[in-house]
């Protein structure tokens, strides 16, 4: 089986004016990226869009057509600017009724807290027809899954709880492993031989990351592959290449992490 | 003059496998968002894409067609995975020669540092034909501007230095001002009346943000508009609405920030 055949991909849509204005600094992209990597899912694109119907619909439709899974964060609260459920219903061409199960979950929590039921709060029980709920252990208001699209809250702690809830429902790809080689020379010194090794090992992805702001020059080379034997073979060659560069520069052998 | 006529917009493309794998957590989106807000530019969409030619070209072309400005971060270093300059040249249909001015900037720095000139390092002097350079005060390797697209480094400190360098070349829109009203009740309590006020003031954007993890329930309402008089009129009505909700809940008057 090739890597390609077994590839599972994801796209993410981050929804919210507050991210685009800078008022809120997003941390959900990094959380979804880590989550996908752990499951062997390749996150291939993220879009950050405002609370605007057409833009959300366009982003969700573009990504759901090309990815195995789509994850969204934001816009499922009780106020007028929370229009994600409306946009997803429009993207799938379905209605958006009050969902009895979602309403029951919310009413149970509201009863415990002595919170009144009103129209704004009931917005959170509107779920596109045909969707399954994603349990929210933090504040009860559920997310939902429709087709390959998973709609989650924007509040980071709730989003992470929803990811945990839906993890068992996702199929992962082959787990991608990584090896890091630390070089005590700059990117420019090893860029040429690294490119040659990348060409020799197309199924091992080689990334090069300069470490700024350290006392000494450092470059981290990160090799990733789903093929463990190939990964270690390529890593040996990268280590040898870095060792040669170190010797030329008069420093010791490279570290691996 | 209406707000629309004077609207200046921006899109951003974050380029790099390391963001999508979770290995690096992006902080450049927030920095560009803050930068745009300060200049009165509306950041309307961000895309995070991998180090893949076609995907970068598609994202840049989509956003440069619909935004006043596009900002990119990442992929302009010396290694084989740094293909942003190649992608921008392809998006604009121009060549990518070594730029004499960029080469001179780099060679001056390399001479000071005793760094050898090689093919990998010279990749950083490749600039699309017709582009202007963006000075990099941190590590000398320049960014560039071509058409409405501004290509910057991914290393956050360098990207911020490049933003500072290009700020005087950008036209800002009318500066958008904001007023924050803090409510000591949940979003669900005020969602209904807030939606009515939003409908009454379409040119004042009203966002509602629950504050999680505090001892007491809090909601921040952020009003934004380029029209100061209208903003303050709407803010007075929001304060009155929140005061009424507070009175009903038996708590004091709302705070403004």
TrEMBL record, chains A, B:
Signal peptide positions (record): none
Q: Which CDD domains match?
A: cinA
Q: Specify the MoaB/Mog domain's residue ranges.
A: 11-173
Query: Where, if anywhere, are coiled coils annotated?
Result: none
Official protein name in the record: Competence/damage-inducible protein A
């Amino acid at each position: 089986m090739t890597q390609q055949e077994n590839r599972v991909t994801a796209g993410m849509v981050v929804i919210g004016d507050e991210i685009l204005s800078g008022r809120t600094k997003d941390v959900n992209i990094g959380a979804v990226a880590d989550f996908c990597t752990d499951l062997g899912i390749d996150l291939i694109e993220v879009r950050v869009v405002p609370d605007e119907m057409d833009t959300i619909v366009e982003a969700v439709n573009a990504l759901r057509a090309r990815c195995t899974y789509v994850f969204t964060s934001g816009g499922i609260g009780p106020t007028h600017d929370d229009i994600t459920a409306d946009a997803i219903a429009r993207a799938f061409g379905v209605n958006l009724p009050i969902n009895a199960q979602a309403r029951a979950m919310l009413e149970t929590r509201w009863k415990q807290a002595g919170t009144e039921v009103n129209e704004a709060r009931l917005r959170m029980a509107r779920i596109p027809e045909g969707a399954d709920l994603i349990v929210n252990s933090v504040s009860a208001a559920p997310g939902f899954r429709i087709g390959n699209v998973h709609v989650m809250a924007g509040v980071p702690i709730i989003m992470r709880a929803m990811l945990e809830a839906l993890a068992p429902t996702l199929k992962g790809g082959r787990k991608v492993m990584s090896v890091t080689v630390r070089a005590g020379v700059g990117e420019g010194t090893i860029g040429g031989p690294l490119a040659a090794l990348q060409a020799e090992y197309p199924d091992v992805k080689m990334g090069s990351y300069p470490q700024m702001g350290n006392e000494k020059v450092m470059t981290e080379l990160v090799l990733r592959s789903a093929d463990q034997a190939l990964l270690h073979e390529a890593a040996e060659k990268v280590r040898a290449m870095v060792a040669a560069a170190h010797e030329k520069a008069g420093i010791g052998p490279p570290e691996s992490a």
